[in-house]
Every structure is written in C-alpha cells, then in structure tokens.
Amino acid sequence: MATLYVGTSGWAYPTWKPAFYPEKLAQKKFLNFYASKLNAVEVNYTFRQLVKETTVRNWIADTPDHFRFTIKAHQVLTHIKRLKNSDEFLQRFLGTLENLERAKRLGPLLFQLPPNFKADQAVLSDFLKTLPRTVRVAFEFRNESWLTDATWATLSERNVALCVAETEERKTPDVITADYAYYRYRKPSYTAEERQTMIARIREHLAAGRDVFAYFKHEETPEGALYAVDLLAGGRVV
C-alpha cells in the first residue's frame, strides 16, 4: 500500500508554541512531539554540515518506526562541485546516513541545484549513475533550462523523482518521473481551496501506488506545521 509522508523543513522552532508545541514543552522533546503529529521531516542543515552519528542515533530514538527523515544533499555536491567529480565526497555524505538507512528511517535525498546551474543532461546522467539505486532521490531544479522533456527522461531512467517546488515566484511542472512523488510547498500561506487541490493530487498518486513525500516551508510561525497536520489527515483517505 502506498504511503503519504508529510512534514515541514525542520522542527526546532520555539515560536510554534502554543499553536503546535505545548507551551511548557522543553526543546529537547520537540522532535518526539513533532513525530506524534507528523510522519516525516526534511532536514535542511545537512546542506552545510555532515550529520553526526550521535545525532542520527538520537533522531532514531526520538521517533517511531514509521517516521522518515528526508536529507538535503550537502552544498559540496550541488553548489561547489556541481555534480562533477564528486564521488569521494558523495561516499562520505552517504556514509553519514547509513544508520538511518539501516533503521529504515531514510526518506529521499533532496538535491537542490543552484539557480545559476543551467541544464546539462550528460552531467546529470553521469551523477545519477553514482547514486545507489536502493536510496530514493529527488532533484529540485531552479533554472528554467532544466524544465524539459529531456530532464524528465534522464530522471525517469534512474527512477529519480522531480521535486515539485512551489514558491510565490515559481512552480515546477508536476511531472511524474519515479514510482514516488516529492512536493515542497514553499509559499507562506495556502488557502483552503489550494490545500484541497493538494489533497486531490496526492490521492491520485496514492491510488496509483506511489508513495508521496510532501513538506511545507518552515517559518517562525506555526502555519506550515498546522498545514502539514491537516494535509496528512486529509490525504490519507484514498
């Protein structure tokens, strides 16, 4: 059965009290509480630093078996090496996630390319071949030159998901390139009608047997977390 995973991009926000976190909840208990309401989180700080083994162990201890951690790929891979000659660092990066994978808590890896990274299908194809097929991967493209049939074909060949990212300025085409789907809802607010449209699309994926990973933008206000709770409840019904 296909599964819907919904969360936000981060959880350590005291300003989510009291609408999401209880007023007197200690910050060290945030993740445990978060995981009682949502079943996934997108970890963004791995873009700048490699996660420590002790941190991963704590994450696993604080969350139930069904919870998933999506990990944002390090900037060395996406912004510095720009997917080229990156095998050595890639193995380092993947090595830090072995315990998550072993515990079956690892969600997709998110590779977010910089806006000035123009389409190069050969580079993308070569990089995808270095990724283990056992790990789910999503790519977010922020240069319009990538948004073509050639890119969809390159991703589909390796069963890699297109990250459908939505901001106030732009929205990625909602194209299926894998047997799972990945959404990043980055607008600061969403109407009830917009959220119903999300639920309808998610139900289509679930009915087709595709797992769905959906993350709202983290903000200093708790709206994203509250949207996520509603989406998880509404999207599960197929």
- From the 3D structure, determine the CATH topology: TIM Barrel
Structural class: alpha/beta
Total strands: the figure is 8
| Approximate shape | globular
Rg of Cα set:
17 Å
Model description:
This protein is of the alpha/beta class. It has a single domain (4-235), classed as TIM Barrel (Alpha-Beta Barrel). Helix content is 35%, strand content 18%. It contains nine helices and eight strands. It has helices spanning 30-37, 53-62, 75-80, 87-95, 98-102, 121-128, 149-157, 192-207, 223-235; strands spanning 4-8, 40-43, 68-72, 106-112, 137-140, 161-166, 180-185, 211-216. The longest helix is centred in the C-terminal third of the chain and has 16 residues, at 192-207. It is globular, with a radius of gyration of 17 Å. The mean pLDDT is 95.
Structure, briefly:
The protein is an alpha/beta fold. The chain has helices spanning 30-37, 53-62, 75-80, 87-95, 98-102, 121-128, 149-157, 192-207, 223-235, and strands spanning 4-8, 40-43, 68-72, 106-112, 137-140, 161-166, 180-185, 211-216. The chain has one domain: TIM Barrel.
Features:
single chain; 238 residues; alpha/beta; TIM Barrel; 9 helices
List the helices and strands and how they pair.
Layout: E1 4-8, H1 30-37, E2 40-43, H2 53-62, E3 68-72, H3 75-80, H4 87-95, H5 98-102, E4 106-112, H6 121-128, E5 137-140, H7 149-157, E6 161-166, E7 180-185, H8 192-207, E8 211-216, H9 223-235
Parallel strand pairs: 1-8, 2-3, 3-4, 4-5, 5-6, 6-7, 7-8
Helix pairs in contact: 6-7, 8-9
